[in-house]
Amino acid sequence: MTEGAAARSGHSDGQRPDLPTTAWAVLGMLSHADELSGYDLKKWADWSLQFFYWSPSFSQIYAELKRLEKYGYATSRTVVSEDGMRGKRMYAITESGREAAAHWVNHSPVEAPVLKHSVMLRAWLGHLAEPERMREILGQHIDYAETMRRRAQADADGADANPEWAYPSAVLRWCVRHYEAEREFARDLLDDLDKLAKKRNRRNAAGNRNSDSSH
């Protein structure tokens, strides 16, 4: 098989390419419609994927689309506006792309989610923090979790109205519960840190009394 034929068929020497998960995410979005523009993909990602996986930039989306076209998993065409002055590129999943996406969903190894929680890292270093500042940080995080919960709920409600979005709707409802839990976990942590701050204050006060009595 020639290199060009391998690219068009979506694999080389019978093997599917080892694509990053973000490429599969873009390909998966294409599987939901006949054609989508880069703008559509960005809007869809912000509507759903951002709650549990990815909030991409336009440059990331177009880089993945270029990769998918290279392997024959997607095709594109330019659609010119009625006035002939503007054009936009529309992308569609190919049959080999749909087969590859289905293979990835069904057969790729189950990966452990990677949690990089900068707020928890700062709380972990709470012995270096000013207590009131740590309360502000956790308060902001609680507000963020509640905002995301409300947005996920609104998007889930909208998805419920379309039978074709049954699976994204189910995941969005999971996201609602996730952000509810994140909000409650942060509140519990705030209570724990308040207790630690009180203990620290008592130790400091006891140390000061001992210091005064020794003079």
What does this entry look like structurally?
It is a single chain. By secondary structure, the protein is mainly alpha-helical. The protein folds into 2 domains: 21-105, Winged helix-like DNA-binding domain superfamily/Winged helix DNA-binding domain (Arc Repressor Mutant, subunit A, Orthogonal Bundle); 118-205. Helices cover 64% and strands 7% of the residues. It has helices spanning 3-9, 21-30, 38-47, 58-70, 95-107, 118-124, 131-160, 166-213; strands spanning 36-37, 74-80, 87-93. The chain has a 3-stranded antiparallel β-sheet. Helix 3 crosses helix 4 (58-70). It is elongated and about 85 Å long.
Structure classification: mainly alpha
The largest sheet has its strands arranged as 1-3-2
Shape: elongated
> Which sheet architecture does the biggest sheet show?
3 strands, antiparallel
N-to-C order of helices and strands:
HHEHHEEHHHH
Give the integer mean of the pLDDT values: 88
Radius of gyration computed on alpha carbons: 25 Å
Name the poorly predicted regions.
Answer: 1-10
The tally of structural domains comes to 2
Helix content: 55-70%
Count of DSSP H/I helices: 8
- In total, the number of strands is 3
Distance between the termini: 90 Å
DSSP strand content: 5-15%
Protein name: Transcriptional regulator PadR-like family
InterPro entries: Tscrpt_reg_PadR_N, WH-like_DNA-bd_sf, WH_DNA-bd_sf
Domain Transcription regulator PadR N-terminal: 26-101
